[in-house]
TrEMBL record:
GO molecular function terms listed in the Swiss-Prot or TrEMBL record: FMN binding; oxidoreductase activity
UniProt domain NADPH-dependent FMN reductase-like: residue ranges: 1-143
Descriptive protein name: NAD(P)H-dependent FMN reductase
GO CC aspect terms: cytosol
Length: 187
């Protein structure tokens, strides 16, 4: 079983990577399998530059083909999203728009972080994930900074630990959705 946790913030100094490192083992614990972190900064997709609509599946750019090979084998994807000015990141939208069929039926979930747990960004992201036919699990995990964000920065471990039960439960739900998938496809 392959679960990929997609880090969608790409700025050079970001909390997203440290948060991912703390979140991945908790989801893995619930799911009973490893969770691979995929960092969109490292993926470094250009802004959509395919001549055809990705829905045609005729990719010309090596970057698109490589991104497709990352997403395709995943049984589930979890988008880790901050909130930027009330929305999700441009990198997340670009990463989704660059592919199409790869997302179809993919078990998917969202984990948000921010002052209000990225509560404004997450529903927007879930909407577009549903639009490319991901099987988006209800009940995202919304992690609020609260007292863990100070002038010294974010204390990632304690913040994430506060959502430990929710994150392991999410892992379990992802596992169950993956297990159910062949049945649903056969029906
Ligand atoms: C461009 C930008 C816009 C932001 N807008 C919001 C916002 O709307 N809501 C919020 O809770 N935090 C906002 N913040 C603060 C982020 O929650 C915080 O910087 C977080 O660490 C961003 O994730 P990152 O470090 O992984 O990029 C914003 C930060 C940036 C860089």
């Amino acid at each position: 079983m392959a679960i990929k946790l997609i880090v969608t913030s790409t700025r050079p100094r970001r909390n997203g990577v440290d948060i991912a490192a703390a979140v991945a083992p908790l989801i893995a614990q619930g799911a009973g399998c490893d969770v691979e972190i995929v960092d969109l900064r490292e993926v470094a997709l250009p802004f959509l530059d395919e001549p055809e609509m990705p829905a045609m599946g005729k990719y010309t750019e090596p970057s698109t083909q490589a991104w497709s090979e990352v997403v395709k084998p995943a049984d589930a994807v979890v988008f880790l999203t901050p909130e930027y000015n009330g929305g999700y990141t441009a990198a997340a939208k670009n990463a989704i728009d660059t592919l199409f069929h790869e997302w179809d039926g993919k078990v998917a979930a969202v984990v948000g972080y921010g002052w209000g747990g990225a509560g404004r960004a997450v529903p927007q992201l879930e909407t577009i994930m549903g639009n490319v036919k991901m099987n988006v699990l209800e009940g995202p995990v919304l992690m609020s900074f609260g007292e863990h964000m100070t002038d010294e920065g974010l204390s990632v471990e304690p913040m994430v630990a506060g959502y430990g039960a929710e994150l392991t439960a999410l892992g379990k739900r992802i596992n169950q959705a993956i297990e159910l998938r062949p049945e649903m496809q056969a029906a």
